[in-house]
Amino acid sequence: MTLSTSSPSTTTVTLQQLFEASSSDRHLPPQVLTANLAASVSESSSSNLSNQVSSNQMTAVQLDSVVNIPFQQFCLDSRQLIRNEAFALLKSHTPNCQKSRDYLYQAANNAAFILSEIDPLALIATGNIPPHANLELTPDNAKYIAQQQLDALPCPVLYVPNIRDFLGSLIQARLQYQQRVTLPTVVAVTGTNGKTTISQLVAQLTQLTGMSSAVMGTAGNGRLGALVQASHTTGDTLAVQQFLHQMGKEGAELLALEASSHGLDQQRLQGMPVSVAIYTNLSRDHLDYHADMAEYAAAKAKLFDKAHFPDLTHAIINIDDEYAQIMLDTAHASHLKVWTYSLDPSKTATFVAADITPSLHGVEISLCTDFGDGKVNHLDIVSPLLGRFNVANLLAAIAAAVALGHKTGIDIERIIAVIPQLQGAVGRMQRVPSNDGCFIVDYAHTPDALSQVLASLKTHCKGQLWAVFGCGGDRDTGKRPLMAQAGLAGADKVILTADNPRTEDPNVILQDMQAGMSTEQYQRTHIESARQTAIEYAVSQAAADDIVVIAGKGHETYQEINNIRYDFDDSVILQNALEQAGRV
To answer: Per UniProt, where does ATP bind (predicted)?
Structure first.
């Protein structure tokens, strides 16, 4: 079938046409998509309705009646749904039957059809029927009334409980039907820390060696040098697939993206052609979402499973991390080419930093590579990136570039040669130019992250190390004194200031941060609630051999006060302060 290139606003398609159009695409074989839908509908026929309805025989709406209904695009947000789009009703991490029911009824007025991950009969039968229906639910008539309500909806609803297993592929099939493009090769990075920096370093290395590259993650989405701020590290399935397709339209050959644990757990990356997967590390985070660290690690490990990402060829894993074995086991089970990296010269890894020499201008690295062919290579690297942890980030990025080089013919020597041209991710150990002293903007906003940043910079520092930071308002108050203690443990001088106070009084937050401080610690601490004034004070007081870290906001370009976001960019404020002080 010839692929359509008409305007999305005028072109309709059916699921059956998508199956036929994608028959030659190994990523979207029609038999797989058809089987997935059929299996999901079959599974739904034996499901149980909670408490009131014992079974759900989807007699009114079956697969055949949906696959031939014309629709325009897919939509995941009922508020953005336009007429004749196909709506996917997905479960929320925090289930709310009333909201899901509202989404169902709202979408039904405009959708061509609805594919629901939630049992629609259960949704209707176990809740309140809309007031205009004038029907009363009892245990005896719940199923009958629910089926009546379902049948009365303006569009058919198909229960597809495993829709996340193929939703990304369906969306990409629709986009490709609209306009066939060559999709970029994807490198995905997962881990608690380092995702943003590594993804951007991968994109830079590949671009500098001849590939057209793009990134997707916390610091923004788009081509290098033209990023658009993102609201989530990993967007929803529709946003991810649309972005992938758009990058293909723009000719990007490589997409480096951040794979969050939320995104992996919720299968938002399903259908992405991930070729190289990178694991950085795991530390306590997101336990409001994951039950424990084991569940958190299991979500990360999905990135190394070919059952989820059939295009995978390489796994690149930090063996210095205590959770590395889980990723290694998953990667080996998927028969991937597994490369490891380490900052410990005593360990056997594919990429090892045998020696690290830091300076205020970056770091010199003696790199040893061992690909298991009996030949160990020794390479000298000059990196402009500050911090020991950025050495680990760089090793991961080099490994990814080498893995891609197997396809493009780019060798490791060429990759090493362009490293001096690298720039750190915006707001991640970002050095703001000055004639003397060293001034850094970093995103570190947790005690652990701040400790790591200060420990890394301490090795570069000939004079005193300054830390300027605060704590966010309307957030975990118990973190506040821990944050201050992390700063005092790692820095010689500390300036406590505001950091998105939101609806709280910044002075109250600063008082919380000072809890438990000793007299000696108070002597090393300056309190200034106005963040701009705090930055200007640091610039005026720091000596020529000192390092100043402005931490907590990084790439953010606002200060949130009383529900209003005011323009505030640490790097811009710092640059202006340096100019006013005559230090640039």
So the answer is: 191-197
